[in-house]
Amino acid sequence: MPPDSSAQLTxxxxxxxxxxxxxxxxxxxxxxxIADLDQRLAEVDWPQSGEIIVDGSGITALDTSxxxxxxxxxxxxxxxxxxVRVQGLRTEFAALLQLLTAREIPPEAxxxxxxxxxxxxxxxAWSAVAGTQGYLAFVGESALxxxxxxxxxxxxxxxxxxxNVQTAGVEALWITGxxxxxxxxxxxxxxxxxxxxxxANIFVVDLVALAMLRELSPLLTAIIIAGRSxxxxxxxIGTMKVTEEIDALxxxxxxxxxxLVLPKVIALVIVMPLLTVYTDVTGVLGGMVMASxxxxxxxxxxxxxxxxxxxxxxYWTGLVKAPxxxxxxxxxxxxxxxxxxxxxxxxxxxxxxxxxxSIFLVILADALFSIVFLWLDL
Amino acid sequence: MRAAANPPxxxxxxxxxxxxxxxxxxxxxxNVDLSVNAGEIFALxxxxxxxxxxxxxxxxxxxxPVSGSIRVFGHEVVGMSxxxxxPLRRRWGVMFERGALFSGLTIAENVGMVLSEHTDLPPxxxxxxxxxxxxxxxxxxxxxxxxxxxxxxxxxxxxxLARALALDPELLFLDEPTAGLDPLSASxxxxxxxxxxxxxxxxxxxxxxxxxxxxxxxxxVAVLGQGSIVGVGTMAELSRSDDPLVRQYFHGPRGRAALxxxxxxx
Lengths: 378, 266
Hints:
Distance between the termini of chain A: 96 Å
Oligomer: heterodimer
Strand order of the largest sheet of chain A: 1-2-3-4
Helix content of chain A: over 70%
Radius of gyration of chain B: 18 Å
Strand content of chain B: 15-25%
Number of domains of chain B: 1
Strand order of the largest sheet of chain B: 6-7-8-3-9-10
Structural class of chain A: alpha/beta
């Protein structure tokens, strides 16, 4: 047999005069051949008892995978009550086999069965409950941290607050302004057709101004900030958790809430109303451009009408939502960051959750606001 | 195919010639030459910031030197394309200093992933072979089901070694194999590294600070200092060297303790 032919396996039943059956192994026993060898070993008609000699003198190459197959075969036969002897192996191969024999290797890593579906439903339900509880607890802790800071105002960290104002506010001006401008254009354009039919072109002012001020500009800003900053908060805190920076903060005696959460919440509460006012302006500007192009409502006419179309209440009802949305976004982002558990996957999952949940809660809060304003007749 | 089949060859596995590396203005390597022979355990040492890990990263194609030549298994790797590097990468295993285990996979999946990428083994054999590698590194059997974040630092290191061994590499790179381990686990790694060479005939190149590890298992040691190799040889030879940088390294308080211990063992 050529020395480097691929793996060979021959099983000889006891010939008359001998008592032992013999397994002859030849060729290369390595990661690339064991799939084939494993199949052929399974097809062997093993004796139920007696002596088996494993002759490894023909093996020309052996790696850990090959050695494992040999070792496993010997172990299985021995467990069935056979007497197994390995002979003829080269010294270095024998050493390798010895390396495996010396260690306790589980027969096969058992596959963990997924639990039945009812149990999975139960687990999910509980984790949802625990998630809500955890979130409420987190909001409580943040409130306590805020109280602590209010009692000792010197502990308020202005630097991170200003930094967050910069990243979440100033750097978001371009994108929020552009999107609300476009939104103003879209609303005016959609309304133009209907209004023209009734000859009520001038009411485009009411349409754009009320829609932007009361609903769209706070909501649009909140959604952009949730995607831009809420996700960043979750990813930042989550990564800090993976690298144990949060634990380090705790050992230094700095509250993570105080250093990481409060500045973000405070910064967003400052920034969101400002951004909302700004997007009010750009949104109405978009409507104005569209109105003059499509409906022949000039800028001066538009601004004259604006005075009558909106009351202070339309402005305030939009603006009052902004800090609430800000708190939702900052707290959900930070909470999700703290929920990260040690792996890169978990950072990704929690970041996604932070955006989904904060947008969901923002829209829910917006609906509640509408109901309250309806009661108050605003 | 595998090197284990053959008696230890005296040919050169890694050949580094005239490597220069610069990061902007900072010069890391200035004409570094070294060679690692087949079947030997080669240690690269040097103070912090001496560019040991950078040299290792250049050899395993994670970074490019400014000039010079690096030949691994006789192939020039400087400027090699990823496509051409693939067959080479299958022949070596790398254990990173901090493990670099995939945090979203269990230990068994970490090892199995390498196998399923590069072989066509059926799933049950992949699981078995992964379990073998995990057991080889001395981890308990149930560690395979755990995620890296659930393991201690020492166990993570062993798991990283198990993944590096997944394809039975001919050449193994170990970056600080014992850093951050308790003495007991560290001496476990010593034995393991020695045992791997005996049983598998692997060539091992490691970057380390651990003088005990070097005394116990390293055949040859190269000392990197001020951008170039200031001494190469067995530990006994280096401990007699006159070079101030080498002396500083081996005759500091810790160096002396390790030396005494090594002599007492003999």
